[in-house]
Amino acid sequence: MDVEILSRLQFAGTIMFHYLFPPLSIGLGLQLFLCELAYFRTKDLAWEAAARFWTRVFAVNFAMGVATGIVMEFEFGTNWAAYSRFVGDVFGSALAAEGIFAFFLESGFLAVLVFGWDRVGPKMHLLSTLMVFMGSVFSAVWIVVANSWQQTPSGYHIVWHDVQGEMMPRAEVTDFWAMVFNPSSVDRLTHTLIGAFVLGAFFVASVCSFYLLKNRHLEISKRCLSIALPTALLFTLLAAATGHDSAQKLVETQPAKLAAMEGHFHTTDEPTGLNLFGWPDVENETVHFGVQLPYLLSFMVYNDPTRPVPGMDQIPEDQRPPVWLPFQTFHLMVGLGTLMILVAAYACWTWYRGTFDQRRWLLWAIVAMPIVAMTANQAGWITAEVGRQPWIVYPSVQDGVEMMGLRTADGLSESVTAEQVLSSIILFGIIYSMLFAVWIFVLNHKIQHGPESPEELAEYKRKLQTDSMSEAFGHHGTSRGGGMMEDGA
Fold first, then answer.
1. Rounded distance between C-alpha atoms, residue 254 and residue 183, angstroms
2. Could you give the CA distance from residue 444 to residue 205 in angstroms, rounded to a whole number?
3. d(CA 255, CA 272)
4. Which tens digit of pLDDT belongs to each residue from 171-181?
5. Which tens digits make up the pLDDT trace of 223-239?
6. Which of 107, 191, 285, 358 allows an S-S link to 242, with CB 3.0 to 4.6 Å?
7. Angle CA(472)–CA(467)–CA(41) in degrees, nearest 5?
8. In sequence order, what are the residues at sequence separation of 6 or more whose Cβ sits closer than 8 angstroms to the Cβ of residue 5?
9. Burial of 363 (0-12, 13-18, 19+ CB in 10 A)
């Protein structure tokens, strides 16, 4: 058993499990805000019933995201102590910003969002919904900034420190905003957030399509679909655009990752074609069963179909990433993204024609789309993380000075053993399996119950108002009685 492989598998498993929840919280936050905004503008109880329902679903998912996210911070100290020392100054500032701008914002307004119905006014509740949504976005901002810095570091220098008699390198921030706006942060942030918006839109559309198939909650479902389907189409198209921008940057910042993603082994003077699919063979430096479109990779990378793209042979052998996994996950992400664009476009067209709910096969396809979106999000992160190996922090050039990077193997804790990591993987597997089962059970319970109808909500509001008036009258009568008794005495 190799401690590096086990530690990487452990972190990959915990972060992939955690990453089921934050994108859904961000995407649901946007859909929830749009539903409540529609209620605020129209005072239509169908919109309020929808907003109340999605608030309950959001709360369940948000709680899971918080619980599973804490674990990774401990892993930095237990399994990756050398890495933590190297990036501590950079990550400390980014995570401190997350705490200030994201956690305080979310925690300050989350209670109002979940428990504030009928306790605060519509304006305040709408504001709390917006603030919780923005808090989740700000949290993603600082996490992606920190991760992007590992991919394309900037705004730092290396300082050597004495750690128990041994000199250790440490990256220290020299320019905070250069660190924040490193060469890949904006493209990666927009692509990540848009992927979350796609997931949220398809999740809402999925649940509402399920209700249409079961002939339940029809009015509310159609209201939500009128928002979810157009936003799904918009953000799937934007995901393709931002993904293209990110890929174009790779030829300058991470050419080895680009070569691995495309299975491009040999640099030639000829224009470079794009592999639609295939089976990369690193040993023979070829792609078996591949179907290649001539000129397309050159055009997509440089906007010039005649310019050759550098291949893996331009990278030193000890700095080359694995090829098979990033190749397959990248093509999986692109394929699923294309599928989501087509499904969203056709769904919007049938919605416009008024025939959406008449196509049961399309409704079932929409029901399955959240799984497709989650898979695409996971595949994108696998591509990004595996494609930067063997570096956990890429080497770079700062102000004309070459800065060392940090290899993944050098970021491990010195004292952790393979047996300890393996036992923790088994325990995490058991606990996370139980958490996943609980999440599915509670989420299914919420969805099966569904939202209240506008009529039920109206009756609830009338009863609440009546009880409130009765309570106020009762207090008033008691007060007057007490006063009269005092006068009589």
1. 11
2. 15
3. 14
4. 888 888 888 89
5. 999 999 999 999 999 99
6. 191
7. 100
8. none
9. buried
